[in-house]
Amino acid sequence: MRILETKNVTKAFGGLVAVNDVDFHIEEGEIVSLIGPNGAGKTTFFNLITGIYEPTKGEIKFLDQFLKKSKPYEITKLGIGRTFQNIRLFSSMTVLENVMAGQYCRTKADLFSAIFKLPNARKEEDRVMEKSLEILDFLDLKKIKDEIAVSLPYGYQRRVEIARALATEPKLLLLDEPAAGMNTGEKKEMQGIIRKIRDKGFTILVIEHDMKLVMGISDRIVVLDYGNKIAEGLPQEIQHNERVIEAYLGKGGAA
Ligand SMILES: Nc1ncnc2c1ncn2[C@@H]1O[C@H](COP(=O)(O)OP(=O)(O)O)[C@@H](O)[C@H]1O
Ligand SMILES: [Mg+2]
């Protein structure tokens, strides 16, 4: 089943076209990587899907619904979870609290009852905590559940962000450079984590620069350059695609 589909999606910032006429789709259960040099429009594409920006042109369909003018929290509720290239954890909260915050979009108790621990909210909080602990256990983060999230090493913070995104119970998970700033060992671990999440039934779209990781996890790869989709295919096809090689080499082989 097709989970997400975009048609002619375009986003211009004044005269700069960051995403240009992009047709894209992802099927249920797939891991698709979105790659391309710095400034290619990858994060902007995520921001369009998650309602942070409205497309200048084109349409985005999630399951059977067009995401026209939907707000980010509405899109989270519909079932698209994400992490950010620049980690955005709640700074005064523990790891567990960060993940619980992700779960609250699935609860009925309002924030007021939650804060003042009214009886109806109490039961719900127990459930939220239980579910959050399960997710932390799944990502091997349970032992650091009481640490202040932003005081942790970078690699852990990225994992906590993934845990929080999973707590929103997404049908589609978007990861923006989950292995950025990690060493080889941590990258390998991240590869295992992404696979493990998919094996649990999630569909994953990931922006990543590390080619070894990309080749190791992707069912399919989509390549952006200057906002345009320049290639799409199986990892081995993309690896030998002339336009892709050119796009990267033209920029010093970086990214
Ligand atoms: N809010 C914004 N305002 C103006 N320009 C932006 C904004 N967000 C991104 N851009 C520009 O759009 C282009 C694509 O950026 P981005 O999507 O962050 O690229 P990537 O994630 O592929 O590195 C860049 O040239 C960037 O400077
Ligand atoms: Mg980016």
CATH H-level superfamily title of the domain at 2-79 and 170-249: P-loop containing nucleotide triphosphate hydrolases
How does the overall form come out from the CA principal axes? globular
Helix amount? 25-40%
Give me the CATH fold name of the domain at 2-79 and 170-249: Rossmann fold
Give the class from helix and strand content and strand pairing: alpha/beta
CATH class membership of the domain at 2-79 and 170-249: Alpha Beta
How do the strands of the widest beta sheet line up side by side?
Answer: 6-7-8-3-9-10
CA-to-CA gap between the ends?
32 Å
What does this entry show, briefly?
The protein is of the alpha/beta class. It is built from ten helices and ten strands. The strands form two sheets. The protein has a six-stranded mixed sheet, sandwiched between helices.
